[in-house]
Amino acid sequence: MTIIDGKIVSEKIRQDIKKEIEKLGIQPGLAVVIVGEDPASKVYVANKIKGCQQVGIKSFSYALSESTSEEELLELIDSLNNNREVHGILVQLPLPNHLDQAKILERIEVKKDVDGFSAYQMGKLALGQPELTACTPSGVMQLLKEYGIEISGKNAVIIGRSNIVGKPMFFMLMQENSTVTVCHSRTKNIKEICQNADILVAALGRANFVTADMVKQGAVVIDVGINRVDGKLCGDVDFQAVKDKCSFITPVPGGVGPMTITMLLYNTLKAYKLYGK
């Protein structure tokens, strides 16, 4: 069993991004917008800004009050859309309940959608013409490739069908010639389906959902979940019970997590190269 170290792979990619930015002699810009005082969101935003500083991306940070109106937020996004120094825009989720999340995200110019959530970017991915792809599943694909894990011809099972992970993960694995099954809350016989997976991706947000009896001997297990139980972080996979059955497995923390922000930085540079020159 090999533990997939997301920290090492993340650092390697960040160094590559930094070198490319230095070689190009430019400074891509990433704008990060946070509304309200959610503690976890504030930590994520701080980590994103720190990542920008590490690789040479110029960060624009906007911390708005909980009472910010939808009109005010949309006006800010419009101004960032028109700012030529900004190549990527990220609105930190979740937003306060009085704001229409879908409307806010749709307002971001698709060429600056470094989260890869827009209908345009998701559609390009579905057509096999990816431009800016969702960060977390992109990170998963980088981990698989970095560790030399064969994807073509393998049976892959994804647990979870979110727009952020499950759906883009489906298209990415399929485009690498994997046979992909997506399980969700209405799926019957999830255990039996998972037992046939050569690659199992857990992204449902339920602590320790994947148990040893769900995992095929020698499978690759990718744990996207981040849950807090009794004050400690854990994934969607019961790591201790499952690890001895795997050929490869990602830990939580330290597996997929570090890759998400790294792929955001990667997308910001890519947005500059695709659209921002």
Q: Percent of residues in helical segments?
A: 40-55%
Known CATH architecture of the largest domain: 3-Layer(aba) Sandwich
CATH hierarchy, class of the largest domain: Alpha Beta
CATH superfamily of the largest domain: NAD(P)-binding Rossmann-like Domain
Q: SSE order in H/E notation?
A: EHEHEHEHHHEHEHEEEEHEH
Predict the CATH topology of the largest domain.
Rossmann fold
The geometry reads as globular
The total count of helices amounts to 10
Mean pLDDT metric: 96
How are the secondary structure elements laid out?
Blueprint: E1 2-3, H1 6-24, E2 29-35, H2 39-55, E3 58-64, H3 70-81, E4 88-91, H4 101-107, H5 119-126, H6 135-146, E5 155-159, H7 166-175, E6 179-183, H8 190-194, E7 199-202, E8 219-223, E9 227-229, E10 232-234, H9 239-242, E11 246-249, H10 257-276
Parallel strand pairs: 1-11, 2-3, 2-4, 5-6, 5-7, 7-8, 8-11
Antiparallel strand pairs: 9-10
Helix pairs in contact: 1-10, 2-10, 6-7, 6-10
